Amino acid sequence: MLKFKHFLLFLSLLIANQVFADDSFIIENIEVEGIQRIDVGTVYNDLPVSVGDRLYMSETPEIIRELYATGNYSNIVLAREGNTLIVSVEERPTIGRIDIVGNEDIETEALEEGLRFAGITEGNPYDPSVLEQMTKELEYQYFSHGKYNVDITTSVEELPRNRVGIEIDISEGEVTKIREINFVGNKVFDDDELLATFESSTTNWLSWIAGSDKYSRERLMGDLENLRFHYMNHGYLNMQIESTQVAIIPSREDIYVTVNINEGEQYTINEVSLAGDLVVPEEELEVYLDAFEEGELFNRQKLMQINEYITQRVGNEGYAFVEVHPLTEVNEEDKTVDIIFQIEPNQLVYVRDVYFTGNYASQEGILRRELTQLEGALVSTSKIQRSRNNLYLLGYLDNINIETVPVAGQDDLVDLHVTVEERPSGQLTGGVGYSQLDGLLFNLGVSQNNFLGTGNIVSFLFNTSEYFTSYNLSYTDPYYTEDGISRGFSVFYSAADLAEADVSNYVRDIWGGAVNYSVPINPSNRFYYGYGYENVMIKTGSDPNTVSDQVQDFVDQNGNDFNVFEAILGWTRNTLDRVVFPTQGSATNLGFTMAVPGSTLTYYKSTLTSRWYKPVFDPFVFMLRGTVAYGDGVFGTEELPFYENYYLGGVTSMRGFSDNSIGPEDSLGDPIGGNFRFNGTSELFFPIPYIEVSSVRTSLFFDFGSLYNTYGGDTNSEPIRTSAGTTLQWYSPLGPLVVSFGFPITKAEDDTDEIFQFSIGAVL
Asked: Helix, strand, coil: what percent of the chain each, to 5?
């Protein structure tokens, strides 16, 4: 009925146009019909005419076109009743909801963000053409992930109040793989050498880890840049990638990539110099230029490194916005290049304010004290970087970013905006489980690395198993003094039946306490010292046939109750970029503990441990770790007491061998440990393929080590053990979890293999 009325009105408008010579009228009123969702004021705003205007009949098609252009209406009719303009419309439905199903490789939020970027979102008017636009946008996202087999279907459901629901059903298909990568025009470097610069690859034994054989347009763009840099690092300053062809077979399963290269000429270095306002003593900057020698090939990577060094050095003097431009002057006659580092220091800049965001639990003061870049001081690039590293080393912060924000109207001032994400700093653990070494075990633990947001560390741990029971309460204030001296206290008790741990048969009870201090030497180095007391009780049981000669002889000579007064000294150096899953830097600890005169027995133990990390190529990280430990009697005590011996074997030291099994044995054939131990590992870390979880990683490892008793006897000729395998590490809510599959390579005749091993609380 409404459409019929509109038709009659429109017809009357046409008739009036034909009958009257005057085809215009002055609009005295505007009436809008048919709106449901849109406000009448919106229609008035959309109209290009208003009350009081003269409307000519010839203008009505243009008015209708402009209303259609708003996208709000699917049907528009203009009519006249007297001097009233009647606007009859049918609204387009709005998009009430968008449901995406079937997606696994790309998260729903990422797909929705892409649709929003294309202007497709809930609440917008619905036009059937939007379905095609929506499909193209989603296909584009999947194509960028190498999935050219994706199949996207859409369906529309009418909803109440003139709305529609759109369901998008995605069948992702398999990722298109690279079948061949070909180079055309390369004469200096062969295909294999050029392929080595690519992250993309054809299918090989490593491609399943990084997914490098799965085509990605973004990755290929990065590869082409790497290829260009490779040539420029070997003197080919004008190398050009003339074209790149990517051909996909009809089944969309394989892709062929062809790169056409113009290598150009090779250039050598003639002269390297500085220009501009140096602001730093010239001799300090010229040291960086020595990396280039006259006559050597031009190297873009070296040039950029020198540029970065100069920028950082000048930036350390307070020139936060320094610009260093590496200029090249090419001599085509002798194919040489002059390099000029043009320095524009700009304004000296001071830090006005430092403010933090994201620290919901941590007090700002405990974060601020880690900063080496202070308010009111000149900006220093190195101090900002050191501040960022210090915050990472707290262990309970992640994704730390420090941004220099210019102060409006002040060229010489910046604010530092420190953004952090907090990790859970506390752990409450408890449970019943089973361990290979411990058997049935029960544990309860409360630890807080950021107690009440103060940065202090408090923990209470209780563990019991078939052979071991322990209690430990500790408290550490990392800023006992304002200049960073830390102080910690601990009290503990443990009782262990070592026979149940597959070592020599005796029971050991220990209780005691300690206090320790740590003094910063510089941002990376600390000296620590402390003192403590232990009471050690050794029990051998009533049956001498179950006790080894070594244990029984020791007890007969020295008794079984020992008071130990300990002096503790040590040094640490830490340049790791983070506490959990480091990617670069090193951590070294040299510790020395002595049972001083006044103790029942006097002896010392010394340990040197070090870890070194280096990114190899993203996302692989290489790690070397080593430990050397030695102990001996002193001041009249001839040997290190057997209950202080070192042990080797297990998931935290020598994977592939059962816990504590490596090394000297007692008269009953059980491990008794030794006073000299060394072991190490080389390990390659990488994330689990296709699982983007930052708290989980895997590795391939090679372990080596051995354990000796230096006091003579048959235990003096222990061979060096080696093993290899793979691990899974998870920084779980209950603490670090390590699962290992290790396979011994070289071993002694009596060693015990243990292929599968796991540990909670191991060093990550």
From this structure: 20, 45, 35
| Other Cβ atoms within 10 Å of 432 Cβ, number | 8
Q: Are 286 and 274 a contacting pair, CB within 8 Å?
A: yes
Q: Show the tokens assigned to 103.
A: 């997606």
* Structural contact between residues 708 and 664, judged by C-beta atoms closer than 8 angstroms: yes
- Residue at token pair 């040997």: 639
- Give the whole-angstrom CA distance, residue 14 versus residue 24: 12
**Closest to 664 measured CA to CA, from 651, 679, 677:** 677
Report the share of the chain in percent with pLDDT over 70: 88
Inter-residue contact 443 to 470 (CB < 8 Å): no
At residue 308, φ and ψ (nearest 5 deg) are: -65, -40
Pairing of strands 525-539, 507-522: antiparallel
All residues at 6 or more sequence positions from 493 whose CB lies less than 8 Å from its CB, including other chains: 470, 471, 509, 510, 511
Q: Residue 611: name the closest of 627, 583, 587, 590 by CA.
A: 587
CA distance 294 to 271: 6
Count CB-CB contacts under 10 A for residue 671: 26
Distance CA(498)–CA(659), nearest Å, equals 12
Contacts of 131 (CB under 8 A, 6+ apart): 154, 156, 166
Q: What is the DSSP letter of 660?
A: T
DSSP state of 142: H
Widest CA span in the chain: 133
Q: How far apart are CA 732 and CA 424, in angstroms?
A: 11
Render pLDDT for 62-98 as a digit per residue (tens, 0 to 9): 888 888 887 778 788 888 888 888 888 888 888 888 8
Q: Which of 410, 403, 365 is nearest to 384 (CA)?
A: 403
Q: Beta strands of 364-425 (E only): which ranges?
A: 397-407, 410-422
Query: Which residue type occupies 58?
Result: S
Give residue-wise pLDDT tens across range 20-34: 335 788 888 988 888
How far is the C-alpha of 155 from the C-alpha of 128, rounded, in Å? 11
